[in-house]
Design brief:
By secondary structure, this protein is α/β, with parallel strands linked by helices. It is built from nine helices and eight strands.
Length: 214
């Protein structure tokens, strides 16, 4: 049995600002599939909690009072092989981003990231993917090409979304695609979930931003 199979579904939040840390803990505690969230204010405490709680995922600030955040990313993966580490910090320097990715971080977000994007990133890395936030380039050597926002959609999903963006009602979409209205509503919810948004309006905005709408 691999080391990863023993990892409890626990999240570790590492940030030296108590208000920021508590806010993140509160946000992540409500995330489906997260059994518990533990918090550390620095490198030493993060090492201790990683050893005790073996988190499946860790959200790590790089500016820590008692050590190097990039070094901590590397240490966490030594303590808990398979842990999905996401950096969340103020720095968007390409060299720092590259160093974090080389150390093993699967994600890199800035602290002005909105909660929905943060949660979507956490879900992505917990599922084995990579999540680098808006304006952050993942140029780690060997990193896969960054997927576009619509890459998770099937051709059928894209067809439905295109009709939605075109202003078609649920009834019109159902008629056009030979589906029931209930199926269309359910599919819109599924598409919204895949895109990490909460409703059809936000899904349409993602479509526009991807440059696919006329």
């Amino acid at each position: 049995m691999s080391d990863e199979s023993h990892i409890a579904d626990t999240m570790l939040v590492v940030d030296d600002h108590p208000v920021v840390r508590r806010g993140l803990v509160s946000l992540l505690a409500g995330e489906p599939g997260v059994a518990r969230v533990v918090e550390a204010g620095g490198v030493v405490e993060a090492r201790r909690l990683a050893t005790l709680d073996r988190p499946r995922c860790a959200l790590v600030d790089l500016a820590l009072p008692d050590g190097d955040g990039v070094g901590l990313v590397r240490e966490l993966l030594t303590i808990v092989p398979g842990c999905a580490v996401v950096v969340m910090t103020m720095t968007n320097d390409p060299g720092t981003v590259r160093a974090a990715g080389t150390a093993g971080a699967r994600g890199y977000l800035l602290k002005d990231t909105d909660p929905e994007t943060l949660l979507a990133a956490i879900r992505t890395v917990r599922a084995g993917g990579r999540a680098f936030g808006p304006g952050v380039a993942d140029d780690t050597p060997g990193a896969p090409a960054r997927p576009g926002p619509l890459d998770s959609l099937s051709p059928r999903d894209r067809q439905l979304l295109a009709l939605l963006v075109d202003g078609r009602s649920t009834r019109e979409i159902a008629r056009s695609m030979s589906l029931s209205e209930k199926t269309v509503r359910n599919q819109i919810s599924i598409i919204s979930g895949k895109l990490g948004v909460s409703d059809r309006v936000q899904a349409a905005l993602v479509y526009h931003r991807a440059g696919l709408a006329g």
